[in-house]
Amino acid sequence: MKREPMVFAVAGMIFGFVLGYMAAGLGDQPSSDPHPRPGANASVRPVPSGAAAPAAGAAADDGHDHPVGPADPDEVRTLENLATRDKQNLQVRIELGNLHMDHAQYDEAARWYREALALKPADNDVRVDLGASLLNLGRGSDALAEFDQALKSDPGHKKALFNKGLALMQSGRPKDAVAIWDDLLKRYPGDPQLQGLKDQVERIRAGRNTGSGPS
Q1: Is the pTM above the cut of 0.85?
Q2: Nearest to 194 by CA among 172, 170, 165
Q3: What DSSP designation does 36 have?
Q4: What is the arithmetic mean of pLDDT over 37-50?
Q5: CATH class of 1-42+59-160
Q6: How far is CA 11 from CA 18, 63, 164, in A?
């Protein structure tokens, strides 16, 4: 898939509509990976101001339209053969993760992102992609741990902050999600890709205050 600038992302979440893991330059440093990743170097579609607030059980969004059906088995086999022959090949493992993520095969995506991180633990973009995969599998607490680890070394990582909010929502912690998104909005005021997020945050607050939303 064609490389796009990054944002925050993870796959399949509904912000009241399908956001689609993300696409537009938010100033991140380009990764060595020549292909876009749903998690780190792909970007999020802007959040429309009229969209409904994200549900507590919402899945993560990776910003890509997922092809129907599994990944091409021949392409997978070719990449897996390369990975088997070269145990130190970081890029082929990232590519396998990306390929499975694009086809919503999140278990396999997580597997290959983990292998990539075993070779390069400091790659926060891959780590956030792993978190995105886990979030789409409903493993909010595990995803949260990955986002937190990325944020330890890069507190301003946009995608990690955005997706950490999603993980907190999925974990039934809307108040904490709002705090994270408030921080994100303060760090990047006027960012076009965060358009509408402030409205979503206010909707969550209003729902909590009236008792009609997640507590």
Answers
A1: no
A2: 165
A3: -
A4: 44
A5: mainly alpha
A6: 10, 7, 13
